[in-house]
Amino acid sequence: MISSTEDLTTMAIDMKAANRLPPRGDEIRVFTRFEYALKDGGFGKAGRKNVVEADWDLFASRELKAPFFAAVKAKALAPTLMTNPPSRQTLQGSTLGWDTVPPPANVTELLVAVRRVRNNLVHGGKSGDQDSDRNDSLVAEAIEVLLEALRCHSDLRAIFERRW
To answer: The whole model's pTM is what?
Structure first.
């Protein structure tokens, strides 16, 4: 138990766990850069408290559409993502759990699955997951979907590749 405010300010914090990324965790930069490109490319929307956030659904439905989804399937760019997408983290009473979700049926749902990979990577505690091969596949496939989207959308690609 802490006995005074002074004790709080002088206690060292062990940063080992915070500095340890989950497998492929460094690839979060691709997700964040893609979101930046979406917002800067006109695919932003007002979120809570009018804070801008990427409008992935608008990008999917207005720019990528059904042909993109068909191409991802035909090229087999994301077989795990398309057949066994990432689970959704839930709260079951006071315990964290995972709910399975159905495979994506369209391009918007595909990008929801991509975002869930990102969310699970950053927020979901996936570093302790026993199925690390599946997790590695999901991250790699989600990034491949984003790269394919950039290949199909030259304006967004230009923003993505631009220096800060």
So the answer is: 0.83
